[in-house]
Design goal:
- Its EC number is 4.1.1.112, 4.1.3.17.
- Keywords: Magnesium, Metal-binding.
- This is Putative 4-hydroxy-4-methyl-2-oxoglutarate aldolase.
- The protein is of the alpha/beta class.
- The chain has a single domain (18-202), classed as Ribonuclease E inhibitor RraA/RraA-like (Glucose Oxidase, domain 1, 3-Layer(bba) Sandwich), CATH 3.50.30.
- Helices cover 26% and strands 21% of the residues.
- Strands 1, 2, 3, 4, 5, 7, 9, 12 and 13 form a nine-stranded mixed β-sheet that branches. Strands 6-8 form a two-stranded parallel ribbon.
- The mean pLDDT is 89.
C-alpha cells in the first residue's frame, strides 16, 4: 500500500481478504457443455430457488446469447475492481467470471476493454452482483454480461479482494468450479457435485421452441385446472361472480 507522506492519522488495511486461490476442481468441458441444450427454466426447476439467482441480475443488453461455463469467483469490496481485473487474466477458457460486489450501485466493476481481452482469452461470460458499464461496446463484440444495472462511474483499484473462494451472487452461494447457466430467462448455478443429477433430470425434457411442440398442452392443463380447483375449494375460496 502506498502511504501518503504525512497522513496525520494511522491508516488501517485489513489483515484478511487478499487471497488468490487457483487450486480448485473444474468439471469436464463435456459435462459443462451438456447444459447448453437445456432450457434455463427447466434447470431452475431442478436446482430450486436456492440456486436460481435473483431477478435483479439481468442481461446487460438484449438479445444476448446463452452463457454456459465454469464459475471463476471473485469477491470485492463495494466499488473496488482491482481483483476483477486480475481475475480476467487468471481465468481459463470456458470460465464465467462471477463477481460478488455486495450489490452496490455507486461504482461499476469494469468496462468494455477488460471484456474484449477476456473474450480473446476464451472466457465465456461475466456475472456481477453490482453494476457494469460500456454495454453498447460489449454488445458489439457479443460478450455475455449479467449485472444489476449500468453505472458509468469507476471506483478505486486498491483491494482487498479474493479470487477462487465461495461468493454470494444474486442471493446464491457460488463455489469455484460450479456450473453457471444463463440467458434472458435468468441465471442458475449448478453445484458441481450435483451436475450429473441435474443433467439426468433435464435430458429427458424436450425443448419447446414453438406452438407445434406443445401438442398435449390443452389436455394437460385441464388436469391441472381440476387440481387447482380442488385446492381452492379446500382452502375455502370465495368467488364473486358478475350478476
Amino acid at each position: 500500500m502506498i502511504e501518503p507522506k504525512d497522513p496525520g492519522w494511522k491508516q488501517i488495511y485489513p489483515e484478511i481478504g487478499l487471497k488468490i486461490n487457483l487450486d480448485f476442481e473444474r468439471p469436464s468441458k463435456e459435462k459443462v457443455e451438456r447444459f447448453r441444450d437445456f432450457f434455463v427454466p427447466d434447470i431452475s426447476d431442478w436446482v430450486g430457488q436456492l440456486y436460481s439467482m435473483d431477478s435483479s441480475i439481468k442481461p446487460g443488453y438484449k438479445p444476448m446469447k446463452k452463457v454456459v461455463g465454469t464459475a471463476f469467483t471473485v469477491k470485492i469490496p463495494p466499488g473496488d475492481n482491482l481483483m476483477v481485473k486480475k481475475a480476467l487474466t487468471l481465468a481459463e477458457p470456458g470460465d464465467v467470471i462471477v463477481v460478488d460486489a455486495r450489490g452496490q450501485s455507486s461504482y461499476c466493476c469494469g468496462g468494455g476493454g477488460m471484456l474484449l481481452i477476456a473474450k480473446r482469452r476464451g472466457i465465456s461470460g461475466l456475472v456481477v452482483d453490482g453494476p457494469y458499464r460500456d454495454m453498447s461496446q460489449i454488445q458489439s463484440f457479443d460478450f455475455p454480461v449479467f449485472s444489476k444495472g449500468v453505472q458509468p462511474a469507476t471506483g478505486p483499484k486498491r483491494g482487498p479482494g479474493e479470487i477462487g473462494v465461495p461468493v454470494n451472487c444474486g442471493g446464491v452461494i457460488v463455489h469455484p468450479g460450479d456450473i453457471i447457466v444463463g440467458d434472458e430467462d435468468g441465471l442458475c448455478c449448478v453445484p458441481q457435485q450435483y451436475a450429473d443429477r441435474i443433467i439426468a433430470k433435464c435430458e429427458n425434457i424436450p425443448i419447446k421452441e414453438n406452438e407445434d411442440d406443445w401438442p398435449d398442452v390443452v389436455e394437460k392443463n385441464k388436469e391441472k385446472d381440476a387440481y387447482y380447483d380442488r385446492v381452492l375449494e379446500n382452502r375455502g375460496v370465495e368467488i364473486i361472480r358478475k350478476k
